[in-house]
Amino acid sequence: MASSSVLPPGLSHHVVDQARITDWPPGLTRKEALLLEVLRKHSGQCLSRDYLLRTVWGYREGVKTRTVDVHIQRLRRKLGPDGLRRIQTIFRGGYAWFGSGGSRDIPDFFAPAAVA
Q1: Is 116 a member of any domain?
Q2: How many domains does the chain have?
Q3: Of 24, 28, 34, 80, which residue has the fewest beta carbons closer than 10 angstroms?
Q4: Are 49 and 92 in contact (CB under 8 A)?
Q5: The model's pTM
Q6: In the prediction, which pLDDT does 11 show?
């Protein structure tokens, strides 16, 4: 497995899989919710398929699969018209989330709870 130094600071392999996500948009599978969390955490950044496969699925580098594309397609469909606008395909690069994580139409399910 590739070293964790390949990943951005603060993320290590399988860290997303180990995250305890208790609240996500209704109708999303766990992997879809994890994928959405990673995209939103890196808003505006192009994330390669390899990076998403390593981070969300724990795959090794160089794995050839269409699972990211299929999950992105399902995620866009489930998020509705806004999903098409926010999750952009970057030609020969990967995928990127555009927009704030806390928009009115897509609640920020992954933000820390407000402290009173």
Answers
A1: no
A2: 1
A3: 80
A4: no
A5: 0.67
A6: 42
Q: Give residue 99's pLDDT.
A: 79
Tell me the pLDDT tens digit for each residue of 44-72.
999 999 999 999 999 988 888 999 999 99
Query: Do the beta carbons of residue 96 and residue 85 sit within 8 Å?
Result: no
Closest among 46, 8, 40 to 111, alpha carbons compared: 40
- For Cα atoms 59, 79, 75, give the angle at the middle one, nearest 5 degrees: 20
Give a yes or no: residue 67 inside a domain: yes
CATH number, domain containing residue 68: 1.10.10.10
Q: What are phi and psi of 69, to 5 degrees?
A: -60, -40
- Can you give the pLDDT at residue 24? 60
Q: Evaluate whether residue 70 is within a structural domain.
A: yes
Q: Tell me 90's DSSP state.
A: E
